[in-house]
Every structure is written in structure tokens, then in C-alpha cells.
Amino acid sequence: MQSSDPKSLPRVGLICHETIRNNQRTVITNLRRLVGDQIEFSCATGKGAQVPESFETLPMRMIEVPKLDFYSWGYVFRAARTLWLQDRPDALVCVSHPFPLGFGLLILRRFYPTKIVLRMTGDQFSERAIHSSFIVRIRKYLMHELIMPRVLRHADALLCVGSEIAQQVVKRGVPAGRVHVV
Q1: Nearest to residue 161, comparing CAs of 45, 43, 24?
Q2: Were 161 and a residue from 34, 84, 90, 121 both cysteine, which residue would form a disulfide, CB within 3.0 to 4.6 Å?
Q3: How far apart are CA 142 and CA 178, in angstroms?
Q4: Looking at residue 111, what is its pLDDT?
């Protein structure tokens, strides 16, 4: 959905953890540096979350979402709904992990028609190698080799930190035109 005022800037809603972690802060800060004042940002985070002091210099509206378990479907549904109703963003960016929060955004796209952008900052695909438990390794395999690629294919764009991660994403079936390296 495009902004109704032709003179208005594109609006982007950011979905973060309940508390903004360092890696999320880096992604958000770099997005602001890349686009400058060409985009209006609003950021949904948990109620009472500590907002980093460095964010005070960023022209971004912070939206508090009532406290829920930050890594749950309930949180992403509430955060996306709050952003959608208050700002009607042209795109929603999941600054957290693509699963479950990014996956939740893709489900919600049926109700709130907007572009969905997911970020990949770690090599989730080789995470199972660090676990010694057979059960955990199988669970990680199912998640990262069977479920995650299907989720990623439905995103409008992926922001990958580094070309190695971008290559892994393309190798798993995501069209290269949707994968962007930052």
C-alpha cells in the first residue's frame, strides 16, 4: 500500500525484539545511514523496552507494543497490527530472526497488504553443527533446511549481511533478485 499523499515519504515499519539488541541496533542504524531522510521509519518494540541512546539522534517514531513474550507469534501479530493501524507502512522489516517473527509477518500479509523484508545477519544454516545432541541437530536441520528456505522464498526482499549468507540463501531457492547484500 502506497502512502496516500504523493508528497509524503515512503513509510517503513521495523519489527524488533522486545528489547532492541546490539545487532538489531546496528541494522537499524545502517538502514538510516543508507537511506538518509528519504524514508519515514517507525519501530515497534516491547512496552518499557530500553531504547538505546544512539536512537535519540535518529528521526524515528518508537511504538510500544504491550508486553508479551518477545519471541512469540502473539508479539509479532500485535507489533505488526500496531504498526499497520498507526502508520500504514509501505513495507515491514523484520529486524529480528526470520523465524518465528519474520514468518509471522508473512502470515499477516494476507490481512495487511504490504511488502515484507527479512534480514539475515548470522549463518543460521550451519547452526546445527555447533550442537552435540542428535535431537537438537535434527530439529535444527528440519528448521533451517526444510522450513526456513520455504519461509524465505515468500519474502519480498532479504537483507543479508555478507555475500556468503546471500549465496546460501540463493542456493536454497530464493530468487537472486530478492537477495540484497549489506
Answers
A1: 24
A2: 121
A3: 24
A4: 84
